[in-house]
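tool_call: predict_structure(chain=1)
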Amino acid sequence: MIYFIGAGPGAADLITVKGKELLERADLIIYAGSLVNKKLLEYAKPSCTIMDSAAMTLEEVIAAMVPVAQEGKLVVRLHTGDPSVYGAHREQMDLLRSYNLDFEIVPGVSSFMAAAAALKAEYTLPNVSQSVIITRMEGRTGVPDKQRIADYAAHNATMVIFLSSGLTEKLQKELISGGYSPETPAAIVYKASWPGEEKVMRCTVGTIDATAKENGISNLALITVGGFLGSEYERSELYNPTFAHGFREADASKLDVKPGK
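tool_result:
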């Protein structure tokens, strides 16, 4: 069996229990060396073969996995965050199907979740933003028509931008031309959840580029944009005592409940 495992955003203890258990049993681990915390490899058994995919091509990765899986051994393809977000694992799965090999995906904690934790923020706030756009700048790899930064900026929703911390000058212009005001809150989160390395830089849309340059940020960072970083929002109805639902009757008197009562 071949397992595509989300390694989590960086901290070694943010991998799932299932992911850790599979790492402990694996006969071959191929990990994204430029992004995955190498402490995760300490879970591997001594006899496990470990390969860094940073310098490998798709064909080389498949050529390494196939014969081991065909021998009935356990193969782990260890991706950063969750494989479904910029993981490039679809092309690997399609090639494995051509060999009639079975595989399974073990989800992981994405770095965009770790970024929110680092910011101590909630992406979805009532009357501020109820949608999160996960995207990236157009660079050497293009983006489809109508899916550029400026197109999404017109919605003024929460935006989490991957793979773009080396393109901040262009990104800033795209965000403003698309509809965000220069004063819109923004933040750059470098190596979210990595022990001793995480760095949070709060700024505005109009100062993203200057903030990145002042802090020497050119990779391994997420850029978040939107009013969720501000201080204004409406209370959620979910825990509002005046709001009834299937598990609770409305009771306005509970608005006065204080800690310890």
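agent: The longest helix spans residues 58-70. Proceeding to next step.
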